[in-house]
From TrEMBL:
It is found in: Cytoplasm. It comes from the Bacteria. Residues 95-193 form the CoA-binding domain. Keywords: Cytoplasm, DNA-binding, NAD, Repressor, Transcription, Transcription regulation. NAD(+) binds at residues 103-108. Residues 29-68 bind DNA. Homodimer. Modulates transcription in response to changes in cellular NADH/NAD(+) redox state. SUPFAM superfamilies: NAD(P)-binding Rossmann-fold domains (SSF51735), Winged helix' DNA-binding domain (SSF46785). The keyword NAD applies. It comes from Paraconexibacter antarcticus. Belongs to the transcriptional regulatory Rex family. PANTHER family: REDOX-SENSING TRANSCRIPTIONAL REPRESSOR REX (PTHR35786), REDOX-SENSING TRANSCRIPTIONAL REPRESSOR REX 1 (PTHR35786:SF1). This is Redox-sensing transcriptional repressor Rex.
Length: 220
């Protein structure tokens, strides 16, 4: 079955200047599960399957997607490859986008070796640490560099995202270094409450908070 069978007129309609937070969050969730479905060899998915995996009502899914074009076909569903490409276009994340990773400990090494970013067009191109015993060591195909190399790396490697996989007490100082180097997006795996200028976006990932969120819905 060809992609045109599943994406008709209106496909690829331009995204609005700014998506609402709710729509952007749901589209990102759809992209996450579609990417996994693609990895598992699925060629098409239905809105009901997406609903099962994302916990978003299937009517809401169809409404979200129909706002940007005709992406599905009744009785057939969505072409996974095509929908992944279209959502990335809508979210303006077609990539590639380069990442600087801070922290060469257990968490940092796990992140660097994971496909979690690569699946979505992000590449860890530089890894930094302040510990002398880690600087110069290998993490996959990368060599751990001192934090003092960051400014040059941002320019040379076209880095747009900084990922902090460091202890809480180190996070703010590294966030300051990233801001000074011109990085506008910080992904924070620590629990530190980072203070950054308004033009810098910080996303803090907390497994504990995610578990509390899941537990709330389980108990209620």
């Amino acid at each position: 079955m060809s992609v045109p069978d599943l994406i008709g007129p209106g496909a690829g309609a331009p995204a609005p200047e700014r998506l609402s937070m709710g729509v952007a969050a749901r589209l990102a969730r759809y992209l996450q599960v579609l990417t996994q479905a693609k990895r598992e060899g699925k060629e098409t998915v239905s809105s009901q399957e997406l609903s099962t995996w994302t916990k978003v009502n299937s009517t809401q899914i169809r409404r979200d997607l129909s706002g940007f074009g005709k992406f599905g076909k009744r009785g057939v569903g969505y072409n996974v490859d095509a929908l992944v490409a279209q959502i990335r276009k809508i979210l303006r994340t077609a990539g590639p986008h380069n990442i600087a990773l801070f922290g060469a400990g257990h968490l940092g090494r796990a992140i660097a070796s994971s496909d979690i970013f690569a699946d979505h067009g992000f590449s860890v191109v530089a890894i930094f640490d302040s510990a002398p015993d880690k600087i110069g060591s290998a993490v996959g195909h990368l060599t751990v560099r001192p934090v003092s190399d960051l400014a040059a790396a941002v320019d040379e490697e076209d880095i747009v995202v900084g990922v902090l996989a460091v202890p809480n007490n180190a996070a703010q100082g590294l966030a300051d270094v990233l801001v000074d180097a011109g990085v506008k997006i910080i992904f924070n795996y620590s629990e530190a409450l980072l203070q950054v200028p308004p033009e810098v976006t910080v996303h803090t990932s907390s497994p504990a908070v995610d578990l509390l969120y899941a537990l709330y819905f389980y108990l209620t």
